[in-house]
Design brief:
By secondary structure, the protein is an alpha+beta fold. The protein has a single domain, classed as Alpha-Beta Plaits (2-Layer Sandwich). The protein contains three helices and four strands, in the order βαββααβ. A four-stranded antiparallel β-sheet has the order 2-3-1-4, covered by helices on one side. α1 runs antiparallel to α3. The two termini are 15 Å apart.
C-alpha cells in the first residue's frame, strides 16, 4: 500500500507563534505513525513560486495522513498556527510500484 504524505509550503509571519506550533506538531504526527522527511532546510526554486519553508511528512498510508489532519489533536495544534503563517498543504498518496 502506498504511503500518504502531507506536503506543506509555508511563509512564517509570526516566528514566535509558529515556533509554538512547530514544537507541538511532532507529538501529534507521531501518534499517527508519521515521520518528518523534510522540515525546512536549503532549497532551490527551479520553477514557479516558492514559499520560505517546506515540510514533507510521511505516513504509512493515505488514510492515516488524512486521519491525522482531521483529528481533534491536530485541530488543537493547528490553532497555534493561526495568524502565524501563510500555509498551503496537500495530502497526497504516494506512487505505488506500478504507478510510474
Amino acid at each position: 500500500m502506498p504511503n500518504g504524505y502531507w506536503i506543506a509550503r509555508i511563509t512564517v509571519t509570526d516566528p514566535e507563534r509558529y515556533g509554538a506550533y512547530a514544537r507541538a506538531l511532532p507529538a501529534v504526527v507521531e501518534r499517527f505513525g508519521g515521520r518528518f522527511l523534510v522540515a525546512g532546510g536549503r532549497f532551490e526554486t527551479v520553477e514557479g513560486e516558492a514559499k520560505a519553508r517546506n515540510v514533507v511528512i510521511a505516513f504509512d498510508d493515505y488514510e492515516k495522513a488524512r486521519a491525522c489532519w482531521h483529528s481533534p489533536d491536530y485541530a488543537e495544534v493547528a490553532r497555534l498556527r493561526e495568524r502565524a503563517a501563510d500555509v498551503d498543504v496537500v495530502i497526497v498518496e504516494g506512487a505505488g510500484p506500478s504507478s510510474m
